[in-house]
Amino acid sequence: MSRNPWNTPQPAVMSTPVALISSTAFSLGGVPASLAVVELGLLVATDHTEPMTLLWADILGAVVMENQLIVYTCAPKASGQRILSKFTISSGQPELLESFAVATRYLARYPWDTTRTLNEILQTETPDRRCLVLINPVGGSGAAERMFQDVRGFFDAAGIHIKIQLTEHAAHATEIAQTLDLTAFDFVVCVGGDGLASEVVQGLIRRSDWHDAIRFPIGLIPGGSGNGLTQSLTKLVNEAFFPENCAYLIVKGSPQPMDMMTARNDHETFLSFLSLAWAFVADVDLESETYRLLGGARFTVSAVAKVLSWKRWHGALSYLPAADDEPTPTQYWDALPASGDAPALDLLPPLAGPLPASWKTIEGPFTFFWATSAAAPSSDCHLAPGAHVNDGYIHVVAVPENLSLVTQAKILLALDSATHLEYPQVVRIKTRAYQLRRTDTNFVSIDGERFGGSTIQVQMHRGLGRVMCLPY
Ligand SMILES: Nc1ncnc2c1ncn2[C@@H]1O[C@H](COP(=O)(O)OP(=O)(O)OP(=O)(O)O)[C@@H](O)[C@H]1O
Description:
Blueprint: E1 21-28, E2 31-37, E3 41-46, E4 52-55, E5 59-65, E6 68-73, E7 85-90, H1 94-109, H2 118-123, E8 129-135, H3 144-157, E9 160-166, H4 172-179, E10 187-192, H5 194-205, H6 210-213, E11 218-222, H7 228-236, H8 243-252, E12 254-264, E13 269-272, E14 275-278, H9 279-287, H10 297-309, E15 315-321, H11 332-335, E16 360-363, E17 368-372, E18 394-399, H12 405-414, E19 427-438, E20 444-446, E21 449-451, E22 455-469
Helix pairs in contact: 3-8, 4-5, 9-10
The chain binds adenosine-5'-triphosphate (ATP).
Residues 136-140, 167-172, 192-196, 199, 224-226, 448-449 line the site of adenosine-5'-triphosphate.
């Protein structure tokens, strides 16, 4: 169950609301109206209509224009998609309008707290926020720029100042993140796929101030072909998966801890926030580049070609098993001081050395291997139901055996509905550190990016980074 305070079911109308401020000096559509700031939202009433409540959960902000209070809301439609709309109410009393606007902006941003007095709220101008918006113009089907224009209103309504920058080439987002003045913005928004966000993460972790930089909050709008993190986040807080809802999570949200993993081979390290795919999935992901002109269909075409190729991947998975009764992993920053050149790798054995006695090993051949920190490493694949972006665990889903063409196809098709776990050939493992030793020389795919090496080790760091989201 989500602990998100905004998402608890709320009645549209309060029966006995206690008002923080209320006034009858308003008019709505030319008829006298009353407006009250109550626990659930703004309560509006006229003599001619049923009272209605604009919920704080849906309100993004408010401004005063001439003699009007304009409240921006984004209640979801039946499909769950949030739609930006304006509610306007008039009054001839400018100070009253301003009081309601200040209180609305405050309560739209911070959940109701009875310890704050009206005076405190009215004297606290909610600070504006600033964000850098990075857009990958070639991500997915190339529609990221237009997609951001469609959701930009959510940022404006919430009073967030934005600076837009289009990425001009591969690795541009890494360069930007490496030199970004972290004091100039409150967070960065990536409009693209997981690959764009991954580039930002690589830039942040390569800085000399990495221990501050890696906690710089990242928001995501799904404008790529692989949008696993946004899919996983929306699921966690019971939001529908639409670009508007992802914008809502950013503007109504605050920085939330996000697990990250260090992957290493014998010559480099890579910081991942989502997943490592090897075998079938990695080959399909990386080879689908060849079919980019086909848009989203490129993955299907690439997958069919790969199933028919009858390829198998040889190697061994070794991992630190998680005991059922082990204590919850400690958040990285609670356990370790901000020191060293990079996140500490205390759970991994030397790359060429023997494995710890407590580790287990599964030998291949592997047909399927995907390790994820979130439930959905890709928007249409519910790989590890129940996995949480801040549970401190890596969830490995693998098939360490040969499969018939038919069973392989059935398991792949079952990923969408998470029924793949019902197949006895599918193994699910929970771990904080693992090693993959393999004979093939293909790249694995980490958050959509290529990574090589015959031996790859991965360690989880619980809550190392931060993502903009509603509390989860
Ligand atoms: N202007 C650009 N020109 C070419 N490549 C770019 C540009 N901007 C970003 N990229 C590259 O695009 C890659 C993929 O981006 P992104 O994840 O946003 O989209 P995607 O369609 O989901 O990608 P993927 O190919 O991983 O499925 C990034 O890793 C980045 O290197």
